[in-house]
Backbone:
């Protein structure tokens, strides 16, 4: 977790062997175009890959564990840096950053000027490709200013090339923000960048483009280990761990299928992604109110989460039941000694009783339960990231989150407890869990994006 982002002089370690010839040509084309456009070679290229999620759909923003893995498709940013002497000679006091894309017909050239003590302006209401670079830029600059309050960003020239399909569910936006933040840190003198600090700043930074994102995508892009799955947990703090795939015959192989259906988070956020984040958060708040437990602020996008609710219910300060020494009897609800899996099962079982309005909750229903005014409800949960909904399907969201967290546990256990290399049922069991995930997403209307 404390290791630094690797710096390499060869791309051979970055891609599968079969991809290396085409990738070498791609990198050469990027460097050649950079030199053609800017009249000099780039100082370096920052790279961040996309990801595919094996299991753990739509639960990272509720702070539950997920199991993604990185893919070969990535975002590359070629970078040159203007020295203070060069800027001074040209009469430049602010950071000037021309932003070019390898595909200028689809992604128009742009430029931003950043005051020495300011940040890049982002209009989250406009879906503009450069917003993702600006988000990473601002996150990196904020980190550098925390280290040195007099820090001023340097001027840069960038050329971007990405082959992660936009809106294809492979986290092109997170890869872009991570690569951008990494590029800015490196350009401004950070020779070593810790993976954890890059991930943490990228998670927050991406929200500036109008998406109330969790942390799975950024974690997979930065922490992933070639050939392994990645276990990412968010409570009590960010933690990532490589999970090797079992050695079986036939070997485990995952196929990523392109449906060619685009679901852009930014465009659909008010009625899809951001709405689900709000619903999951409100589900935690309503369940907490009915249980009489107090939620604490956490690292969730809206500072409250279903994982935080679970912690509150099963913490020693929640007033849970007495312990029992009889292992045949379940521990009372709220007992801090309850095993984690059993906690999840109890949270799932209590959901229908606590969230009993099957047709959903109106804003007034929720405000009344939480004993706050309607304007206060909307200000707290629906202003920073506006949502479009008349009814909020809290039970469906909570049911999916708790059941999906259980499926992640089961999937991880299968990967880590292989019976034998001839276990012919392993792939079948893993596939069944993945199918259950998609069925839950469909039935509980979690959707895509």
Residues:
């Amino acid at each position: 977790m404390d290791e630094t982002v690797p710096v390499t002089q060869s791309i051979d370690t970055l891609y599968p062997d079969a991809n290396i010839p085409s990738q070498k040509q791609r990198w050469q084309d990027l460097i050649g175009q950079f030199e053609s456009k800017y009249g000099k070679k780039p100082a370096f290229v920052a790279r961040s890959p996309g990801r595919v999620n094996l299991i753990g759909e739509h639960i990272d923003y509720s702070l539950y564990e997920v199991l993604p893995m990185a893919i070969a498709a990535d975002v590359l940013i070629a970078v040159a840096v203007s020295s203070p002497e060069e800027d001074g000679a040209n009469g430049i006091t602010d950071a000037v950053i021309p932003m070019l894309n390898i595909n200028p017909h689809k992604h128009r050239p742009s430029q931003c000027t950043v005051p020495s003590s300011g940040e890049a302006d982002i209009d989250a209401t406009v879906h503009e490709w450069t917003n993702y670079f600006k988000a990473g830029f601002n996150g990196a600059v904020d980190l550098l200013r925390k280290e040195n309050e007099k820090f001023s960003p340097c001027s840069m020239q960038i050329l971007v090339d990405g082959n992660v399909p936009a809106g294809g569910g492979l986290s092109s936006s997170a890869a872009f923000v991570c690569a951008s933040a990494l590029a800015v840190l490196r350009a401004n003198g950070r020779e070593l960048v810790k993976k954890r600090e890059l991930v943490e700043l990228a998670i927050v930074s991406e929200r500036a483009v109008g998406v109330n994102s969790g942390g799975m995508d950024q974690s997979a892009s930065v922490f992933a280990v070639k050939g392994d799955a990645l276990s990412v947990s968010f409570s009590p703090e960010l933690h990532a761990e490589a999970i090797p795939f079992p050695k079986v015959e036939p070997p485990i192989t995952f196929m990523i299928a392109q449906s060619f259906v685009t679901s852009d988070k930014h465009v659909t956020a008010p009625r899809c992604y951001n709405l689900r984040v709000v619903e999951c958060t409100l589900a935690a708040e309503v369940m907490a109110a009915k249980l009489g437990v107090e939620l604490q602020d956490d690292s969730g996008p809206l500072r409250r989460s279903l994982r935080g609710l679970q912690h509150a219910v099963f913490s020693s300060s929640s007033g849970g039941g007495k312990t029992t020494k009889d292992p045949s009897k379940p521990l009372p609800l709220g007992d801090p000694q309850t095993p984690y899996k059993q906690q999840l099962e109890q949270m799932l079982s209590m959901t229908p009783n606590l969230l009993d309005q099957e047709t959903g909750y109106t804003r007034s229903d929720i405000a009344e339960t939480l004993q706050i005014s309607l304007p206060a409800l909307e200000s707290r949960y629906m202003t920073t990231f506006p949502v479009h909904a008349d009814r909020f399907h809290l039970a469906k969201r909570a049911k999916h989150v708790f059941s999906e967290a259980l499926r992640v546990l089961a999937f991880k256990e299968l990967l880590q407890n292989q019976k034998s290399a001839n276990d012919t049922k392993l792939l079948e069991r893993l596939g069944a869990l993945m199918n259950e995930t998609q069925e839950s997403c469909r039935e509980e209307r979690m959707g895509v994006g």
Summary: The beta strands are 44-55, 67-81, 95-101, 110-114, 156-162, 229-233, 239-243.
